[in-house]
Specification:
By secondary structure, the protein is α+β, with helices and mostly antiparallel strands. The protein has helices at residues 7-11, 115-130, 227-233, 259-269; strands at residues 16-25, 39-49, 61-65, 77-87, 91-99, 133-143, 153-155, 164-166, 173-185, 192-198, 216-221, 244-246, 253-254. The chain has two domains: 7-108, OB fold (Dihydrolipoamide Acetyltransferase, E2P), CATH 2.40.50.120; 131-269, OB fold (Dihydrolipoamide Acetyltransferase, E2P). 14% of the residues lie in helices and 35% in strands.
């Protein structure tokens, strides 16, 4: 028989975690939700982890669609691990599992964490888990490629010689040279690293961090297998002894004063 995921494992998959009491079976709080044997009404007794928009639903009854093998009883109290489904006058979520209250740690991000902080901490934990290198340091310089080549170029059909035109979603790649102060995660201890980032404000790249000279902080870095080849293809002159990394998420650069929290989370994913 497969082992059930632990509360910590479920929390990594769930956006909305709450302690609740089952009120009705085969019922729903929204007309838009088709009532089945898997839809139940649960009162939210306490929101543990969730986006800020969930705050008004504390103390309210919502619809929970249970996972295929999930079973509950009226009056049962549990911690539900869910993801959003429908929102309107009420709320409907899809459950990926629930656990007895006694089996769940009181808090995952510290006793003073709000539900939104809890979710942000979980997301940061995921980025740290996926990162190849985490360092503290300072951006020494930012430069464009020496050659006017772009990842976003397309060949214009029917044009003589295959004339290239810039894709509207061109990332406008730039290379930041970071002087490393300390390595918090990773086997290497480089003095300098190259970090590629999209300088474009296009909708596809708007939220990705933009680096500037003098920028200091904690850098959560990723190294796709093709990053060095892609950098060279874009026209960057990459030195053999300087690894090439990328940042791709707003969480990949943290202020220096968050280093202590980052270190704590690194210990949980190591």
């Amino acid at each position: 028989m497969p082992t059930q995921p632990t509360p910590d494992e479920l929390s990594l998959q769930a956006q909305v975690i709450f302690r609740g009491t089952v009120e009705r079976l085969q019922a729903a709080t929204m007309a838009e939700v088709p009532v089945t044997s898997r839809t139940v009404v649960v009162r939210i007794d306490e929101i543990i982890q969730a986006p800020p928009a969930m705050a008004p639903f504390a103390g309210q009854s919502i619809t929970v669609q249970l996972a295929p093998r999930e079973r509950v009883k009226v009056g049962q109290q549990a911690v539900f691990y869910t993801n959003g489904w429908l929102a309107g006058k009420s709320l409907a979520v899809r459950s990926i599992g629930h656990r007895s209250i006694s089996d769940v740690p009181r808090a995952l991000a510290g006793p003073a964490a709000t539900p939104a902080q809890q979710l942000a901490s979980r997301d940061l934990q995921n980025r740290l888990s996926e990162a190849e290198l985490v360092v503290t340091g300072r951006v020494a310089s930012v430069q464009a490629p020496a050659a006017a080549v772009s990842f976003g170029l397309e060949v214009a059909e029917g044009q003589p010689g295959g004339v290239q035109r810039v894709n509207e979603h061109d990332p406008v790649w730039r290379e930041a040279i970071i002087e490393v102060n300390s390595v918090e995660k990773g086997a290497q201890e480089p003095k300098q690293i190259s970090v590629l980032f999209p300088a474009s404000d296009d909708v596809l790249w708007h939220d990705v961090p933009k680096l500037e000279p003098g920028h200091e902080g904690v850098f959560i870095l990723h190294r796709p297998a093709e990053s060095t080849a892609a950098a060279e293809a874009a026209g960057f002159a990459i030195e053999a002894d300087r690894p090439v990394y990328t940042v791709a998420d707003p969480l990949d650069i943290r202020p220096s004063d968050q280093l202590g929290h980052v270190k704590q989370l690194i210990q949980t994913v190591s």
